[in-house]
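Morning. Coffee machine broken again, so started the prediction first thing and wrote up yesterday's gels while waiting. Chain of 73 residues, entered below exactly as on the submission form.
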Amino acid sequence: MKRPNSLPYILTVDKIRKIINSITDLKHRAIILTIYSCVLRISEVVNLKTNDIDSSAMKVKIDKKMFSMITTK
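Came back before lunch.
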């Protein structure tokens, strides 16, 4: 029997700020901020390489092959 789809729980801006501000490790904070600001899936973040981030242009390159694999499942 198929489970009914439920809407995702959406955090308020205040809760998001509290979560981000509670992270003390710089590396973890950078990862969370990248995920949140770029609206990335976990699998996209796991496959992200340093070369994929162009900080001067403020762009993150996501592998289209990986993206198509994720969306077709």
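The beta strands are 53-54, 59-60. Going to sketch it on the whiteboard this afternoon.
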